[in-house]
Amino acid sequence: MIRKKRTTLDDVATLAGVSAITVSRAIRHPEMVSEKVRAQVESAISELGYVPNPAARMLATGRSNMIGVVVPSVTNNVFSDVLRGIYEIAGIADFDIQLANTRYSPALEDKALRLFAAQKPAGLIVAGIDQSEVSRDILANIDCPVVQIMETGPDPAGFCIGLSHFDAAHAGTRHLIEQGYTRLGFLGARMDPRTQRRFAGFRAAAEEAGAYSEQRVVTTPEASSVTKGAALLADLLAQEPTVDAIFCNNDDLALGALFEAQRRRIRVPDQLGICGFNDLEMMAAAEPPITSVRTYRQDMGLRAMQTILSCVDNGPVTPTTIDLGYEVMARQSTARQRG
Amino acid sequence: MIRKKRTTLDDVATLAGVSAITVSRAIRHPEMVSEKVRAQVESAISELGYVPNPAARMLATGRSNMIGVVVPSVTNNVFSDVLRGIYEIAGIADFDIQLANTRYSPALEDKALRLFAAQKPAGLIVAGIDQSEVSRDILANIDCPVVQIMETGPDPAGFCIGLSHFDAAHAGTRHLIEQGYTRLGFLGARMDPRTQRRFAGFRAAAEEAGAYSEQRVVTTPEASSVTKGAALLADLLAQEPTVDAIFCNNDDLALGALFEAQRRRIRVPDQLGICGFNDLEMMAAAEPPITSVRTYRQDMGLRAMQTILSCVDNGPVTPTTIDLGYEVMARQSTARQRG
DNA sequence: TTGTACGCGTTATCAT
DNA sequence: ATGATAACGCGTACAA
């Protein structure tokens, strides 16, 4: 049986024998209503299965409890972890999350932000710091807390919670050098701005140590995957067989590279050191365990949400930048026999 | 500079020198408006950067262009693929996706559906067929197309797009038997209803071949991961070292099991056959490549969206069930030397 | 503590 | 082809 009309505040009010506004108050500010009335209202609500109409609420208040989240990919493990952090808080704090997937397209990002802006969100979480002019403009003028995650950088559009990918990649590369590797290679996919900065970090560290060669850099604009990691390593070996360690754009590539090395009976870490980026769960479980630069992705989601919540509660706060840092998780894949 | 008031239909109307309702029509039914007026309106819209207020629209029409998606996890690769399919269509068809994460909790699923129902969605996509009584009730009474994905089963709540996990697991297990393995084991994590049905499929096939033993079944209620796969295999080997092949709940476990086997110098596939479930991208790239039962997850998301779109366009259609099937991707991890 | 009047931005309905 | 009016469900401001 289909109920044609949804139950409204008025229905509840009638059943409870009070006026609509009283019901509204009983829901939002229970302390402003007498004990007795509150009980009547509550039982009426559950009897009717009343749920407030978010659209009407938004129209009346001019704001929603929606938090818009803009990410470039939903398939990537990296963002799944961020989302987990976000939903963790969203659940307990009763916020609606609306996810926009830009697929690494600035145009789609503009579109998503424009749509969000029209909905008076309680907050906005956007991945990365490479928004277009248009997007920056929307973010600058919107009347809600904005949190950029994944990365820290100059001139943030609001709050910023992330890390320096340049530094993190630099540290991972330093680790390779400290392990005694001298002919470093780089495997990269997608090559979006964030990836580029990781590459820059690699390059800087490698050059400082005289371990860099353009011949040992292999990249593709396509999305990263384990399969692609294997293919890129194959390309690299064809081009410069003397490479003795690789820094990978991310963990998928690193895992694929490990598999390819195994296929070719290349000994890891002795003949080839492998370092990934992000430290996905599987890195530690691999055989050999793969060294990776750990990032705190779930924490970024968590903190982004907490930031927004505290703005909602305490009114506007001056935006801050939080650097969550990174950690080089040294494992067997780079544990070269010294000497 | 912060614009205090958002631009409304009236603003556009004033600038264009027409009335609000005309602007509304120019947007939704351009063919009902004269060429001249349409041009004026369009230029006014882009000059003001007008974006319709979805809340007001919803309040007026009683329906939204939101599609609610209910999944038990956002971290799991399996659902990421489904989401990719969904967002692919959502982008081009201008639907808002709202994602609810139930974390495998029926109570959270009820809550999510109730909230969605209050928003008059254009459609609902829910993962799985194991909804609670409350949820089934909501789905039965809601006035929009409902699509259950991931799995087919009796008594669907609406459209149903998936596969029989029992059959798929049965087929994967048959494959192991056909390869000559006779002492089959099972690795399982989470053990939600869908997983249970996969186990049932495994068990049925194994028993039919006299290859089943309860001693070779190792499961955990915790979430699956590569690490967990390694741990479960270790448990299994401690308990029943004679196992000669394992069917894994999913690919994460399979990969972890492979790593653990490598650590112990157990030869795959000769000493131990490994079969996963879902056929994530990395399975084919592993060394050795891992056999897995392929499912069509992105396609499920895609088709679920298309189903909803066609309902929106063509009015109510009688719900159907689509079985997308599965395919056993036989690879080296089960390519045992015969004889 | 509780109630009344009005407005939020849009669309449906009924004119013109 | 275009416009006036009411209504959607709720919250704010003010009143009782």
TrEMBL record, chains A, B:
Residues passing through the membrane, by range: none
Keywords for this protein: DNA-binding, Transcription, Transcription regulation
Cited PROSITE patterns: HTH_LACI_1 (PS00356), HTH_LACI_2 (PS50932)
Record-level Gene Ontology MF annotations: DNA binding
Signal peptide interval: none
Residues of the HTH lacI-type domain: 7-61
Domain of life per record: Bacteria
PANTHER family: HTH-TYPE TRANSCRIPTIONAL REGULATOR GNTR (PTHR30146:SF2), LACI-RELATED TRANSCRIPTIONAL REPRESSOR (PTHR30146)
Name the record gives this protein: LacI family DNA-binding transcriptional regulator
Native source species: Litorisediminicola beolgyonensis
